[in-house]
Please model this.
Amino acid sequence: MSMLPITPGATTPSTTPKAAATDGAMIADNFQSFLQLLTTQLKNQNPMDPLDTNQFTQQLVQFAQVEQQMKSNSNLEALLSMEKAAQSTVALAYVGQIVVVDGMTTKLDATGATWRVTLAKPSTTKVIIKDSTGQTAYTGTFAMNAGTQEFKWDGKGNDGRIWPAGNYTLTATATDASGQNVAFSTEIQALVDSVDLTQDPPVLSINGKDYTADKVKRVLRPS
Model:
């Protein structure tokens, strides 16, 4: 009498809980069938030609390993679900909060538009501000100190007209006294408008741009 074939039903972390439960029931049924067959073989074996106990032991060990893998995968699936729920909770907490993130696009309103710029050393900086359609609203050249400082635009274009409220993007080229390029970065301070929980990880919508929660550098108290 031959032994039952072993078909491992181990799941991966991406297996759904329903599929994991089905696989668990399947391996449990196979295990019971194997034990019944094993018992029948032991009862009816030829005393002059006993069955190989090493083979019994090997298959028992294989079944035990598969069962342990099933339990490990089930626990991992539960941990992943908990982690996803925790990420969603954290992301939702940002909605309506004022945060600081690395970025170039901010809102222009009645008070103007503000960026926080950081330069590695004193520089002559050419600034270009464009609207959401890519049209240039303002250009200017400024002497800026090393370190972090605010750059505020009042919304007035080079032609003197006031640009409408909306999202505006600042880009810049900075050079030192010898004409070498200087590292330049920008931060924005803005309200988190919404969160998309269908993404993994969830993404925050800030001034029309998407950011994951780990990109938030600071959270500010509303004034």
Q: What stands out?
A: The first strand starts at residue 98 and ends at 102.
